[in-house]
Amino acid sequence: xxxxxxxxxxxxxxxxxxxxxxxxxxxxxxxxxxxxxxxxxxxxxxxxxxxxxxxxxxx
Length: 59
Fold this sequence. Notes:
This protein is mainly beta. The protein is built from no helices and 5 strands. It has one domain. The protein has a 3-stranded antiparallel beta sheet with strand order 1-4-5, with no helix packed on it. A two-stranded antiparallel sheet has the order 2-3.
């Protein structure tokens, strides 16, 4: 199981507003395989949420 959460990223002169990331991932595997006669199972879970960078134009 892996969980990561990052807030707004930064450029050299300013913050990149609403550019955070939240990620939850995990996997599980079962198995009894005695020379291809056994049992296998695999499950993977991925949940990623990304912020969308807000860009403002002052023209």
